[in-house]
Amino acid sequence: MASERNKTMFEQFELEGIWSSTKDSDINKWDHGVLHYSPTGIELDIVGSLNKQEDDPFHLLEGGDYDLVYGYSVSGDYVMLSNVLAFGGRMNFPGMSTEKYSVSNALIYRNEIKSSSLPIVIKAAQFSFTNLNTWLPNRMLEIQIRKDNTRVYVENPPRQFAICHFSKFGKTISLSINERGTTRPLSGGISGVRIENESRFSLNAEDQPLLISEVKEIVNDFGRLFSVLFGKSVSVKYVRANTAEEAGMNLLFSQNYKVNTDETTNKNRLVPSYDIVKNFLPTFISNWFAMSEEMRLLVDDYLLTITQRGVIENSLINLMQGVESYYRNEELSLVKKIAKITKSVPISILDRKQMESRLGNEQDYTRKLKNTRVFLTHGNKRDDLYTGKEMISATVVFQLIVQCFVLLQLGMDTNSLSYMKSVFAERFNTKYFNNDVHF
Hints:
Blueprint: E1 13-20, E2 31-38, E3 41-47, E4 66-73, E5 78-93, E6 96-109, E7 121-122, E8 124-129, H1 132-135, E9 141-145, E10 151-155, E11 160-168, E12 171-178, E13 181-185, E14 193-197, E15 200-204, E16 210-211, H2 212-230, E17 236-242, E18 249-253, H3 274-277, H4 281-289, H5 293-307, H6 312-326, H7 334-343, H8 352-359, H9 362-378, H10 388-409, H11 420-428
Antiparallel strand pairs: 1-2, 1-4, 2-3, 3-6, 4-5, 5-6, 6-18, 7-16, 8-15, 8-17, 9-10, 11-12, 12-15, 13-14, 17-18
């Protein structure tokens, strides 16, 4: 039977096995159950009870919540579940009972972990995201042209190259890119080969190992970081964790936002390109993990507008709330806060003439955005506010303004941000908008 150690968080699968809340108990007394994984969550169904006591031979005690639950699958893998919480009640039948649990994290691995090795500490982890293999450059194959105009395919050995160091949990962690690929012949009878890019990011905490919960938070944070960079939802595809004893342990967990499994092979759909941001990426990552609480609040509200499907009114309210939180320590009116964010985007990127032809001049735009937000939250209607398709357009443009502001604050220079000029132009030149505005 195939191992679940190679499954990704974009898949849906079940893992059948035996389970116990006590690691060193007699494995013959563990209960049968099924772990259900899907991108929307992790659940464990138990036939019997995890709450075993000698004076409860029929397992009639209520199931509880557990920090850890241990499992052994029919495919021969060991499993460790974290933050296992009972839900949905308990069903009892003659001679049998069942329990249901929600699970925060699942770790699937090959070799048994002794109690003396707990808690598990991670020395390194490799992870990937939505569209990462399309975005990262593929330098593992060169096509050389000989003097006689024939082609020669030269495979370069995969490399690992460092990106940066950053601090989190009081620890210094290094980030690098691990090149990987699978060589395949070209299809359609064409002579030659191609290498499917399977490169991934790698965290290294050799000197200061990380707990599973810390790895989860860091990787989730990278998902948020790249969602801001791309202006669209990016989800964690997989995490492979390494301890001192074992490599390639499969870490599964519930993600902060709805999982985006929609991947593309078209590099042109992914802006900015890797070449645009590669020099700025180390600064961006370091600043991201050191951002202020006010910036984090702004980022959180911005991310709600690109990771959640909803009406445009909610997107505008979320963006306004983020702006107010960011400037909460400054005595400014809301319209001045909106204006300050808007003015931060250079004219070379946000064409004010184009903006004026669609939404009014900059002063009108900031005032009408404020009035629209006040109406949506308090019902105080005025004549100069955005409604209908114009409100959708104004909100989408402000979403891009906030994205630019965050990128600039986290270290991207104006030249690197120039790709956003075409993104703004595309929005301004769209004839009409609908609720599908989260790209």
